[in-house]
Amino acid sequence: MSKEKFEWRSIQRYLSPQATDDLNKFLEKLPQNVGSSVLIAAGIAWAAAGAIGIYTTMQVRGLTELRAELAEVNALKPHVPILKDIAVNKNDIENFIGRMEVKYPDLTFSATGNTVLIVGKDTNTFAQFREALGHIQNGGNGWKIKLDNMCVGRECDKDKLRATIKINQVRVEMP
Length: 175
Known about the structure:
By secondary structure, the protein is an alpha+beta fold. The protein has two domains: 12-76; 85-173, 2-Layer Sandwich (Alpha-Beta Plaits). The protein is 51% helix and 23% strand. The chain has helices at 9-12, 17-34, 36-76, 90-103, 126-137; strands spanning 82-87, 107-112, 115-120, 143-152, 161-173. Strands 1, 2, 3, 4 and 5 form a five-stranded antiparallel sheet that branches. A hairpin with a 2-residue loop joins β2 and β3. The chain starts with 8 loop residues before the first helix and ends with a strand. The relative contact order is 0.11.
């Protein structure tokens, strides 16, 4: 319905002083026309609706305060960087192993991906074995070394010295 088609004069009869008097007379005669039990039931319904409205208002206020506290706590929470392990480039590991084979000729080195295997045939090469482990520990920039397994002496099945090492790099990422 548009503004041009609506008749504004039809609302005037509801806003006249006579309309206010008519509403007042209707409300005064309501208990006689309807009965007191219906009015009591309507009063109870209105009271229940009012109580539900007050309860809802209080719960919404509490929820609003809780959200404000949560936002404040999240604002104070520091952004902690996340550390991620990334496999070192295979070429870097192979180049490093090439240098290790020259320095420690009595040991055997092999690489599969980011895993390095160091093998010594007998326990006489333990000093070189120990130094090779330390060398790998300090080997590359940002390397994180994890010793997967190691056996020395009688523990080993075939070779007397064996160590499996995984080499990763650490990347720092912001959350």
